[in-house]
Structure formats: C-alpha cells, structure tokens
Amino acid sequence: MGFMDNVIDQLCIPSSYEGVYHSSKRHAPMPSVETLSEIVSRLRAVLFPGYFGHAEIEPGTMRYHIGTNLDKIHRLLTEQINRGHCFLCTLDDMDCDACEQEAQDICRRFIDSLPELRRLLVTDVMAAFEGDPAAVGPGETIFCYPSITAVTNYRIAHQLQNLGVKLIPRIITEMAHSVTGIDIHPGATIGEHFFIDHGTGTVIGETCIIGNNVRLYQGVTLGAKSFPKDEEGVLVKGIARHPIVEDNVIIYSGATILGRVTIGKDAVIGGNVWLTRDVAPGSRVLQNPADNH
Amino acid sequence: MGFMDNVIDQLCIPSSYEGVYHSSKRHAPMPSVETLSEIVSRLRAVLFPGYFGHAEIEPGTMRYHIGTNLDKIHRLLTEQINRGHCFLCTLDDMDCDACEQEAQDICRRFIDSLPELRRLLVTDVMAAFEGDPAAVGPGETIFCYPSITAVTNYRIAHQLQNLGVKLIPRIITEMAHSVTGIDIHPGATIGEHFFIDHGTGTVIGETCIIGNNVRLYQGVTLGAKSFPKDEEGVLVKGIARHPIVEDNVIIYSGATILGRVTIGKDAVIGGNVWLTRDVAPGSRVLQNPADNH
Amino acid sequence: MGFMDNVIDQLCIPSSYEGVYHSSKRHAPMPSVETLSEIVSRLRAVLFPGYFGHAEIEPGTMRYHIGTNLDKIHRLLTEQINRGHCFLCTLDDMDCDACEQEAQDICRRFIDSLPELRRLLVTDVMAAFEGDPAAVGPGETIFCYPSITAVTNYRIAHQLQNLGVKLIPRIITEMAHSVTGIDIHPGATIGEHFFIDHGTGTVIGETCIIGNNVRLYQGVTLGAKSFPKDEEGVLVKGIARHPIVEDNVIIYSGATILGRVTIGKDAVIGGNVWLTRDVAPGSRVLQNPADNH
Amino acid sequence: MGFMDNVIDQLCIPSSYEGVYHSSKRHAPMPSVETLSEIVSRLRAVLFPGYFGHAEIEPGTMRYHIGTNLDKIHRLLTEQINRGHCFLCTLDDMDCDACEQEAQDICRRFIDSLPELRRLLVTDVMAAFEGDPAAVGPGETIFCYPSITAVTNYRIAHQLQNLGVKLIPRIITEMAHSVTGIDIHPGATIGEHFFIDHGTGTVIGETCIIGNNVRLYQGVTLGAKSFPKDEEGVLVKGIARHPIVEDNVIIYSGATILGRVTIGKDAVIGGNVWLTRDVAPGSRVLQNPADNH
Amino acid sequence: MGFMDNVIDQLCIPSSYEGVYHSSKRHAPMPSVETLSEIVSRLRAVLFPGYFGHAEIEPGTMRYHIGTNLDKIHRLLTEQINRGHCFLCTLDDMDCDACEQEAQDICRRFIDSLPELRRLLVTDVMAAFEGDPAAVGPGETIFCYPSITAVTNYRIAHQLQNLGVKLIPRIITEMAHSVTGIDIHPGATIGEHFFIDHGTGTVIGETCIIGNNVRLYQGVTLGAKSFPKDEEGVLVKGIARHPIVEDNVIIYSGATILGRVTIGKDAVIGGNVWLTRDVAPGSRVLQNPADNH
Amino acid sequence: MGFMDNVIDQLCIPSSYEGVYHSSKRHAPMPSVETLSEIVSRLRAVLFPGYFGHAEIEPGTMRYHIGTNLDKIHRLLTEQINRGHCFLCTLDDMDCDACEQEAQDICRRFIDSLPELRRLLVTDVMAAFEGDPAAVGPGETIFCYPSITAVTNYRIAHQLQNLGVKLIPRIITEMAHSVTGIDIHPGATIGEHFFIDHGTGTVIGETCIIGNNVRLYQGVTLGAKSFPKDEEGVLVKGIARHPIVEDNVIIYSGATILGRVTIGKDAVIGGNVWLTRDVAPGSRVLQNPADNH
Lengths: 293, 293, 293, 293, 293, 293
Known about the structure:
The structure is a homohexamer. By secondary structure, chain A is of the alpha/beta class.
C-alpha cells in the first residue's frame, strides 16, 4: 500500500500542517470537551437539585450530593482552567506553578459564586414559566426548555470569563449552542429574569448588554454591524459593537439588530425587523406589511 | 477546604433552592431522557423496519423483531407515562395504583394506534421525496432528512398528548428539536403529507392547525401574537392563539406568521415575510423588494 | 396480551410497511452512522493534528498517528462507500465484486486528495479568525467554531460526492447540520477562505456556486425558487437552481436568496433581505427600514 | 426461513421450557448483577476511602463522598433485597407492601453495621500484610490482593444473609468467586484477622465455623463429606456438615478437609492433605512423603 | 524521540514477528471475542427464558423474544463460524463462497439442535439442585452456579465442534474457564444430569467420555498421562488419552485421574487422589490417611 | 434519614478509617487499573500483531500501528509508573520532578526491551503448541490459551519490576491471575519456552527460579515453606524462599513444592505430590498409590 506512504509524507510536511497543528506546551493536553461536559452536568445537578444528576434528593441528604459534586467539580475544573491557559500560552519562559495556583484560585472564586448564580437562574426559570402560556409549571421549563439549558451554560461561562478563564467559557457556550441552537457569547452581560422562547438561531454578541426582564424569541440576532480594522488591516478586538437592550424589552422572532445601538426600556421589536439604529423607550418597531402578489 | 463547607451550607438553605428543587412524590423518579430516547429508537425501528434498529429485517422474521420491540416499548413507556404523571402530581391523598392502571391503559391505546401512525408517516415520506429535487429516493429521506426525524417524534408525541400523557410528549419533541432545530409543539394538529425542508429554526406552536399537503421551509414561525392575561396578571393557558394553515399551502424560509390567523388553501407565503392577518385562499404574499444602497 | 399480537399482525402486512421498509440486497447492511462518525473523527484528527483525536502529537511521532488513522479510515470508509451503493442498487443481476473494487478505488482517490483538502481548510481557518473580532486565535476557531465543523464535513462530503459516492456524503453533511444548524448540501461548490459566523439556520443548496473569500452569517438561505416538473408532474432533478455567489461577497443574517441568480463580486447583502434577482458586483442590498408603530 | 419458525415453536412449548423458565411475580424483575456490582463497588469506596471509588478523598471532604455513596447504596440495595425475596416468593396471596417495608428495614440495619464491618476488614488487611513476606505494605494488599476482594464480598454477603436476605448474598460471593477463584459461602462464619494467600480454588462451605487469626492457602477445601437424605431421598438442607477451624490454624495449599470435624487451635495442616477426622490443638498433619520412581 | 523509531524498526523486522503475527486471508478479520460473548448471552436468553437477557418474559410474548434472539444469533454466528475457518485456512486457491455456504449450513444445523441442547441443560439444572444441600431452588443454580455457566458453554461448544466448526468452540469454553475456573475441552463427551460443585480448577480433557449422572468437585483433573510422539518427535494429535467416567460416579475435590483409564459405574473417588489405573464399578478409592507430625 | 448521618459520623472518625484510608501525596491519584489494562492491551497488540488490537495489520502498515501504540504506551505508562512511586512515597520532603524524570527513564528502558520480550514470547508460544496435543496451531495458543495471557503479563511485569517500578507490576500480574487463575509473582525468574497447561490454581512465588523448557499443569504450587521473622516478630522480606526448577522439568497438576529446594534438570513431578526436599536431576517423583476402600 505504497500509495498511503505517499499521502502520509505529504501530510507530515510542516508547510502542510502549519496553522492547523496544535503543539502543546510542556505536554499540557487540550481541554477536554468530555470533562467539561461532566463538569456542566454536575453543576446542573448542584444548581437544580432533584432535576438532574441521576439522584433523587431529599433535604436530609442534599448536603452529601452537593458536597460530592462540588468536590469533583473543584478538581476537574481547576485542571481544565489550567489547560485553557496553556492552550493560549506563548511564553518561552513559563512559570507553570504560578498558572496552576491561579487556576486553583479562580476555581474557588467560581465555586463561591454559585449561590448567586443560582439566585439568577431562579429568576430565569420564573421568566420562562411566566412568559410561555404553553408551560404547565416551572419544573417543566427546568427539565425541558432550551432557554434554561442555554442560559445556565451562559451564566456559568460568563462568570468564568469574568474571572479571567481562557477558552473554556467559549467551549461551554458552544456546547449549549450545539444542543439548543442558541448562541450566547460568554462575554455578553445579561440581567435577571431572562427568557428566550424556542430559541433556535438566536445570537447574542460578545459586547451586548441586556437588562432585566427581557424576552427574546428564536432567530433574533444581536450582532455587530461593522468591524473596524487598524492601520494594518487587522480587526480591532474588544470594541463595544453590539446592542444595548434595556429592561422589559421584547424582541420577536427573526429580528436582526446590529451595532452599538440602544433599544430603550419597554420597547417591542417585531419579527423579521432589520434594525441598525436606536429605538426610544416604550416604542414599537414593526416590519412594513408584506403585499399580496 | 472549609471554603467549600460554607458554599454547601448556602446551597442547602431552603430559600436558596426553592423553585429549582424537585421533590418527588413517593420516591417516583424523574422521567428518564435516556429511556425515552430508547423508546423512540425502538418505535422508529417498528415504524421503519430495516432502516433503523441495528437489524437487517426480512419479511419472514419481521414479526419477531416488531414483537420484541413492542414488548419492550410497552414496559418502558408505561413506566415513563406514570413518571410523567407523578412529576406534576399535587395530591396529598394519592391513589398511585389508579395512576399505574391508567398508564397501562394509555400505553395500550398508544400501541394500538401505531398502524395509523405509520400510515401517516408513509405520506410524510412521500411528501419529502416529492418536495425536494435533491432527494434521490424515499429511502434517503427516511434515513437522512431532519423533517422525517422531527415529524416522527411529533406524531408520536401528539398521539401521547391526545391520550392524556403529561410532560413526556414535550420531552419527545424537544429531543427532535435539539437534533434538527425544528420545534413542533406536541399539541399542534398536522395533517397528512407534511414536509419541512432543511427545517432549522422552524417553530410550530401549541394550537396550530395544519391541513394536508403543506410544505414549510427553515426558519418559519407559526407563533402567537399576544398572550392574554387574567385579572391577576397571569397568562391564560390553552387559548387558541396560533395560525390555521389550510391544505396545499407553501411557506418559504424565515416567514413569521403570528396569531389566530388563517392561511387559506393553496396560498404561498414568501420568505422573510411578517404576517399577522388572514390570507385568502390561493393568494401569494411576498416581502417588499429590498433596495440597493 | 393478545392485543399486541393484533397490532403486530397489522404492522407486518406488506401494504402497511410498503414505502417505509428497507429490504437489503444480498444482506448488505445499511450504512452505519456510528462508523461514519468514527471516520469523520479520524479525518479530523488527520487534518488538524493535535487538536482532535485524543492524542498529543509531536512532529516526531506524527507519521505513526496519521498512518494508523488513514489505515483505519481506508478500511472503514471502503465498506461504507460500498454500503452506500448497495442502498440504492436496483439491479437484479448484481456484480458485487465490481462494486467492491470501485469502492476501493474511490476510497484511495479520496485519501489521495487529503493534502489538498487540508490546504483548503487552512484558508477556512484563517477566514474564521480574520472574520470574527471575538476570536482570540486561529486555534480557538478550529476547536470551537461551528463553521469549521460544518465546512470540514462539507469539504469531505463534497469530495466523496465528486468521486461518485452515493448517500454517504449526505449523511456526513447532515451530521454537521444536526450539531451546528448549518445545512450545506454536499453538491454545492465552495471556494477558498470561507466562513459562516454563528451559522445556525444557514442553508446552502445543491447547485450553489460560491467563490473565494465569501462570508455568511446565521440564518442565510441560498435556496431554490421553484422546481420545474416534467410532463408527468415529477420534479426534474439536477437542474441548476440555486444562487451563484462571487468572490468577497458578505451576506448578513437572515437573508434569503432564491433561484439561479448571481450575487456579483464584492456585493454586500443586508440581514433579513428577500432576494430573487441578480445583484451587481460591488452593490449593497438592504431591507427597507422598519417603522415605529 | 421457515426452519427457524419450527425451532421457535419447539422452544416455546411449555414442556420444553419447564424448569428453566423464570416467571416473575407481579412483574418483579430479576435481581440485577450489574446493580449489585455497583453496590459492592460503592461499599468498597465507603469501607476503604481513597483506595476505590474514582475519588481522591481528603478528611475534609470524606463525609460528602461517604454520604453520597450510602444514599445510593440505600436506594439500590433496598430494591435488590426486595427482588431477591420476589425471586423465591411462592405465595399466591402476596403482601408486597410488607415485603418492601421489610427490605427497607433490612437495608437500614445493614448500613448500621458498616462500622463494625470495617473494623473486621481492618484486621483482615493486617492479616494479609503480616502473613505475606512479598507484601510491601498494607495498602498493596487492599488494592491488589484477591483475599481482600473475596473476604470483603463475603463479609458483606454474610451480614446480609444474617439479616434474612435471599439470593443476593450468594450472587455477591459468586462475583468474588469469579474474579478471585475463592468460593466462600455467605453462610460460613469467619472470625477476625483472616487471610487466604493466592486463594484460587479455595472453598469454604456453608456451615463452616472459622476462628480468629486463621490463614489458608490456595486450593484448600473446607467441604462436606456426605449429604444425608430424608426418607424420600431428598437432601436434608441446613445440617452442620462442614469443618470447624479454631483460632490460629494454618492450612496449606491443596488440603481437603471434609465433614463436621474440628481442627484444633494452633494446628497446622500440610499441603495436599485429605482429612476427614478431628485434629488436636497444636498438632501438625502432613501428607506422607512422595516416593521416587 | 528517535529512540522509539529504533524500537519500532526492530519490531517490524519479519524475523522478529515471525510466529506471532497473524496475516489474514482475503482480509477476513479475527473471530471477535466480543461478538461471541454476545452470541452466548443471547443463547443463554433463549435457553433459560426469563433468567437472562434483560427481559421479563411471559408465555404470550416468548415467541418474539426467542425469534429475535435466534435471528441475531443466526447472522452473527454464521459470520464467526466463517472467520474461524479463515483463521486456519492454508489454501492458496480459496473458494470462499463454498466456505460461507458451509458456515450457513452449520449454523442452521446448530440452531436446529437447540431444543435438544435445552433438554440436556434441564437435567444439568436438576443435578445441580439435587446435588447441593446449599441450593435453595433450581432457579438459584441457573442464575448463580458456575457449573451451569460452564456446562452451558461446553454444551454449545461441543455441538459446534461436532458440526465441524474450528476455533470458535475453544474460545467459547475458554470464556467460561476464565469466569468459573472450570476448563472443559469442547471435544469431551458428557452425558446428562452433570454437575461440578464449586468447580474452580477442574479440568476435563479433549477425549474424555463421561456418562450420565456424574458429579465432580473443584480441582478435579481428568487429564492425559503421556503424549505419544511420532518418529519426528511431533505430538500425535487426536489419540484417545483421557479417562472414561461411567454413570453415577462421584469424584471429590483435587483428585487427579490421568490417561485412558475407566472409572467404573457408581465408583467414588476421594479427594486429592492421584490415579492412573482403572477403577472397578462400585468401588471407593481414597488417599492414604495423612499422619500427624 | 438521621440514621444515616449517624453511620456517616462513625465512618469518618479517624480511628475508624485508620489503616484502610489512602491519603495521596500532592494529590497524586491512585494507579488506574483501567489505564493499566489499556496499556497491557496495547502491548499485546504490539507484541502479537494481527492477533490483538482491533486491527487487521499488513506488513506495509505495521509500522504505523506499532508506532501509535508505543507512543500511547509511552505516555500512559510513564504516568502510571510515577503513580506507583507516589503510592508508596513516605517522604516529607519530596522531589517530585526527580521522580517524574525517573519514570520517564524507566519507561524508555522498558520500551527498549520489547524486542527481547517478544523473542521470549515466541518461544513460549512454541512451547504451548508443542506441549499440548489438543492445540491445532500456534495461532490458537496465542488467541485462546490462558498460559500465553498469564506469561505475557508476567514477562511485562517482571521487566518493569527489574527496572525498579513499584506496585504496577503486581497489579499487572493480578489482572492475569483474575482472568486465568494463574498467579505468577512478578519477582519470579522464568526462562524461555515456558508453558502452563490449563493453569487454574497454579502459583509461582516471588523468589522462584525456573529454567528453560519447563512445563507445569494446573494447580501446581511453587511456594514458601516458612517465613522467618526478625527479633520483633516481623516477617523478614526478600529472603530466597521458593523452589529452583531446572531445565526441562515437568510438574503435573496439583503438586505442591515448598521452600528453597531444587528440582533437578529433566525431573518429572507427579500430580498431587507434596514436596519439601530437593529432587535429583532426571528423577521421577510420584504420589503413593491410593487404596480401594
């Protein structure tokens, strides 16, 4: 099978694999999607006791289950945080012990924030139940609704991102994106009592700021309009370029809102609208009516 | 690691987990997504013999495979139906034996309906093959097309919902939603010979009524326009609030149709249209042309 | 449980299962989605060494890993190609040895094309990195971005389709569709340096021709407008019916472009636009502004 | 394939399957070997913290891990105990609730006995370490020695048997038999500080009574000599028919000791001996020397 | 890591791997231990309905389960039989179609023999129950006793061997050997109502002939005494060289009986005996008593 | 469920878990039996190409498979060697980097020795084939015979032990012990062309020295006779206390040979013999004949 030797030779020439080959620093392996998936499952079991985690939980034994899950999360997540840092590390002169210590610290701070993270999710569950006449109870939304899945992953990822974690937050939101079709960048800021009905195709960009009590539908884009480049033609990263959506706004399915515009408090944006300008508080923006032909 | 004891304490305070904790009645466990997934796989093997189920099937042995699958489905589904009822049970004075008996009866009636369910799916397969010039044969649509996946789950779920099953139907349609991006509420009513091409992002609401021979594309929303609340500000559940789509209608990608409107027979709705009014039979509704800028 | 015997009887009547029963030729089993999934995973490990494949790879050992993966791919894919042919085989007088030999030949030619396939993917990775200000490095796009997942599956499937493989290419693009919400038909032709941001709901039809350096967003449809039928009312297959998109075009989210129209070089198509006509090179097409109400 | 219908017919005639068919009472399924295996794994994790159970355990988090394991053991074992009773149930007029309650009570009493069970195992670990010059530390015996595996399963099974559990104890000792070749009947009584070196082929019968500080080697049989039958020729069950082995006895490999004989304190029994009589305390019994030929 | 290239070179020199390398004929893969394990599990489910096979079985649905299992066994076993033949094939001029046809025929004849095979196993179950005072019912012996496991595998393997199958029978008896410590060669001939108590270490050689109603204990060897070689010093294969054990014989633990000797009807052989001569019907052979020292 | 809190309290008192709790140094986890099992499987695939490893191997692709396996073995085994050292580490002032470096060095030396290890195994395969008239070819012994399984694990473990590895060698021989019933201590020294027929219950002690061309049967013990203790009553470890077995010796089933005795060249030891003295070269030792009673 000499033909194969030939292909293998070509695929092993450095010029062939340059740009698509990952060479790890000090043998640090890639972050593990499987382990991150286990971590998120355990977090879900901690945050929504009795709904997830293969365990019937009673108040009398809850401590044990939450404690065991947190202990595992602590070990597993610390390592994944460190792998995330190694993935992007460009130092020749590495101080790996310092990175490992930092991963420890970040992980602890993340675990400390779980009660607050759950407090926010309680409001999201209420938003889902109150916002959908088809919901028969809050429990149904926790167990079945893509919005809760996507928002839980987002809130976890956002908190990790705020604590300085690299790469891992994006993997966690992409997990939810793949399962729900809802793509929330971990860098976005989202207030309490948030709900996305149906959700498939909704995109929330990196620098979005969303207030409290906002409701979106499927196929809504909160995106960027243009990407300034620097003098050398390279995209400038980190500029605020996505919409601000204030409290109590509703945006219907398929609406596209681009750029650093502000959708004022209590506004309603109709379906399929294309918007690149500010919208005053309390106003309603609808598409022009379609014609018969 | 005293810091963890502190977090665990906070997470175990009843006020923290109120609203996100599931306390099961009489130790009835949660419905199992894994088991429901097995049930749906076995139903697929029964409905489409030879395509699914890890078995080459010949007419001479078909009885055995279908019989074995139905026997397993019968046992597994009866239990899941019962768990679905327990999930929502609010009685202090439970008569669990009666519930178990009811789950038995429902399950039998569901199995009795499988020949009719398959008859409908045969028409859906023909619709997919006839509706897509890229399809090379009906078999390809059964094995590869998201529409068949989503419509099969929907027809199973809808039949269960009609028989009075709780929660399980929604889990079954959400399974298909996650895999196909097509979100059909189990309460919707859909006629024969139904096809959704590509499908990602299409949403069909709870009270929709869809006739025979209807074709949708990706990103179509058949949703609600507003949600009446009662005097106490609580959403009124169960009101007819989604479109009626009559026979032979075609709705192109990205169209959004909201409210209890009627899209008359043979109508064609263009892509990206936003519609909240009735459409006469046979008419064509298109978006206004976009301008150059 | 006599009720079950009755249902089984009904489900085993030929008129019940006609059209949804697959009877294999000479006991050739169905293509295996699991095996195809393994094949694609191994291809990913070959194409992006160090990113996928559960292995840290160093230049010194790369040959072994790539060689082992290609040897497995060779065996597994040859069989799947053959099963794809059997699936559609309608001959009474089969020459299975000839088919097996052809599967061998196709598989070798496919493997021979992997260096070129990787060359294209390198340009796609650069397109993703350069096109998204949120990307922190090319590695992040390889490991996390749905676009790379979907385009990799598409390029594999397209090459197989060009070599005459049946059914398998469609299964491979549907795998990516299910995970990313991006639906690219394996028959489409796509140039270098291609990127789809976010991607959920984007559809690229069978006869599309896309140039170099094109960028799409989520929810974009490049579809067919109408399907000519022959005199007997059967869809005519294989007609060029999807758009041509020339170099450097950008199409924003939710745009729907239908029919054999040409979007000229450097054009920009705004979000939510509905287009069924040619667009001149360099022009910008935007939706009419939405009104306040 | 009519030949198969014929075989199936024969295998479904009641006279064919009589005696090898299990018909469950009220649909109680068979005890699950997989679940019992999980239960024993979790018990091992509880009894030997840090050695088993996929968890690094520190004193500060030990409570959580042990609590979680005990909660799972409690649920799983209660059900298995009940299934064991159903397996042997011959009542027409069943009171299943009473059985379930009894299973609950037994399970609690079993869990209450775990500290004492661990105390015994600590002495067995010391016996293994002190009795084998090849052992490099007590930890090695816990992690590697078949004796610890077999004796742990035996002590668990014996305690369950004492509490009145049916069938389950035998399954648990057979699990260890299969893995270690050591066959200890759960009915046997064994004192502290017990060790079986190598162990393959050693058999300890149902009515054996073994004192403290006893050491056996591989291939030792402590069996019955004859089985009295009653007037109808049926074996009389439950008669004391196996040896009594007093404190500090050593029995070397391949020795066979049959019947209700007593091996007195401090006796040493040589390898390959065949013994059916009492042995005085402190004596040594060896095989006659083999001859050259 | 040049050191590894060097080792790999050495391991790939033909003189290094000669004798331990398997080069398959026409790419026929090795028999699969996993698949054979599945086949044996399904056979166990067919032979002992309700005890094995993850299914509660009722008379009314038994046909379906047995039919499905036999259909799977038929496909899987036919292929494994063929692989067994390929494994030993030394022909240059192969007629693989003939071999595949033969595998088909053998497999059918094997399936035809299952009712008789079950009839024999029913007698073995009774032998186990009647022969062990510790057994609480025949069901316990089916579910828990190594003897039933080993004898079931043996009877399957022996039937396959009689039908001319290569290699597979030995793999099947080795599976049971590994799990029970009982090593029965598939070539041995064993009558009805056979029981081996405890069983670990018992060996029954290729040319043994065992009558009805025989009971063995653990550690019994029925072996060969010497192996005649031909003029070139090569072992002569296939010579009758193991004991004949007539009806109703009992052989206690650790007895070693070597050579083509006959143990006459109703004889009893004591534990640890070493025997290389005929034993008259009805006689008792015991080891000389061990002495005190 | 307060009763459980009470049990948990008792199980977490240090005096309860002392002696059965493993506290890892610097969070080094326990050696992983699963990973060691994977390592041994990969070694088997390297040593016996084409027989094991889920791959058909041809000379033209052998390098890739062996290279990939060795690269994985190298990574996995280095870590396990290190864990073995941590398991026994008692230092307060650890230099973990030095240990890791040593693990690297040992692992390389082990891999360097694989060609010699395979050379020995080739002779063992010939011994098995030549020594058993029931063997139909050398390939059957590689694929099916417990002797090859046990001796392969032993030779791997012995080499690791010679290189100074802790704990891991014993785990590897215990894996084979569990599956075959053959218990060979990794410290034993065994020459070329070694075969154990049937093997269940055979034990070869730590300080045994076995020459070339030796054949054993099942149930043979090469053990220690007495264990000298030091003044404080503690067993003296490491003393030569097991038999020396010279070239060409045959030992039949159930023989027990204890102490530092020498079985001279070409000697034959009969079954069930109990031996604690030297045996002259060429002599035959048999048990006294059993009597009729």
